[in-house]
């Protein structure tokens, strides 16, 4: 027994070799890392690649590295390689210490059996609107690291997603990792995810909040638009202001201008819009409380 | 592990894996799913065919010590790796975890049992005395429609206390 569709399998030993294969086959090739998304799509005949390029033999893509690179607003850059799984992130001391909100997110992502195999970069490449990696990295102004026949390029995550399952990745290119700047200013964050049940489920809606000392805020949303989105109008409204009940009400009122939820098998658009407001309020309050040292521990569900 | 390999469609290629501690060679095609190869070519029936899309956890095996979905992995991907199934776990009799599951009458139909046992084994290997939250998280990806999980969680915690 096997998948009905037949394909060729190649496991390049170098990045160059992988890029060459991808350039030759173009859209007839699919990159395989964890495979939790890809293999089920091929099994269901939703993708029919001529060749599957397994990048697990390419050295150096399995690292989580924080490099000190002092700049104006950042102290360093975290690089998460294309082969880093969600379990790797969950167990990483650097993530727990410097990016606890990423660890918070991994605890509500699928199940251990999926997290052991699925990669964060793969999650960003499959680009489903309900992906959890997109919004969480958007608030950090992260960038995708892409390598192709014409060299390397960096794509800001805000430009990466085009629509459901569509990114700006070009023919012959491999996403080798994602670069996440570590802010210099004191900050705290919060990830809130709405699901139908405990255990593994895709997000019905998600809200990520990053708050800096001095009342600067970044917010993003998952599963409520064709792609993960930053809430720039809400950020502008909140900028420089202390969080009050009235300010939160004004922010929630702006939501229909930021997101465009739809009705599907997991939730109605009305429910998504309403709950995104509830989650934005709780996320803002929790992130600010965490900044002040009296917030809920990371990993505490707010919903 | 081979650093480079190309396998054409419809062509059978030999892969080598350590299966329950024993080195095995098996011929696979690129589109063969690990779950099918384990069950059909290698004769191990403990990984079950459930949803075949990674949701139910019935096909769980340990790949290099980590629980994974055998339905979402190509057999050719595990060339040079280690796979453990329930059959390997019981080679020297029941483990403390399995005894605890028996004592707590943790299963009814038993279809989810191999997956639950492997997920909980991985947990106990990494966290010998897990909390209730950790135990719940570990098996949350193994769907059980009989028990409501209570006796499963109790057994995992009891096995942890024995350590």
What does this structure look like?
The complex is a heterodimer of chains A (about 300) and B (about 160). Chain A is of the alpha+beta class and about 300 residues long. Chain A folds into three domains: about 10-55, Uridine Diphospho-n-acetylenolpyruvylglucosamine Reductase, domain 2 (2-Layer Sandwich), CATH 3.30.43.10; about 65-185, Uridine Diphospho-n-acetylenolpyruvylglucosamine Reductase, domain 3 (2-Layer Sandwich), CATH 3.30.465.10; about 185-290, CO dehydrogenase flavoprotein, C-terminal domain (Enolase-like, domain 1, 2-Layer Sandwich), CATH 3.30.390.50. In chain A, about 35% of the residues lie in helices and about 25% in strands. Chain A has a five-stranded antiparallel sheet with strand order 4-5-10-6-7. Chain A has a four-stranded antiparallel sheet with strand order 11-12-13-14. In chain A, strands 1-3-2 form a three-stranded parallel sheet, with helices on one face. In chain A, a hairpin with a 2-residue loop joins strand 6 and strand 7. In chain A, helix 11 runs antiparallel to helix 13 (about 270-290). The longest helix of chain A has 23 residues, at about 270-290. Chain A is globular. Chain B has about 160 residues and is of the alpha+beta class. Chain B folds into two domains: about 15-90, Ubiquitin-like (UB roll) (Roll), CATH 3.10.20.30; about 95-160, DNA polymerase, domain 1 (Orthogonal Bundle), CATH 1.10.150. Helices cover about 35% and strands about 15% of the residues of chain B. Chain B has six helices and six strands, in the order βββαβββααααα. Chain B has a five-stranded mixed sheet with strand order 3-2-6-4-5, with helices on both faces. In chain B, a hairpin with a 2-residue loop joins strand 2 and strand 3 (about 20-30). In chain B, helix 3 (about 95-105) packs across helix 6 (about 150-160). Chain B starts with a strand and ends with a helix. The model of chain B has no long low-confidence stretch (mean pLDDT about 95). The interface between A and B is large, with 38 and 43 residues. Strand 1 of chain A pairs antiparallel with strand 1 (about 5) of chain B, so a sheet runs across the interface.
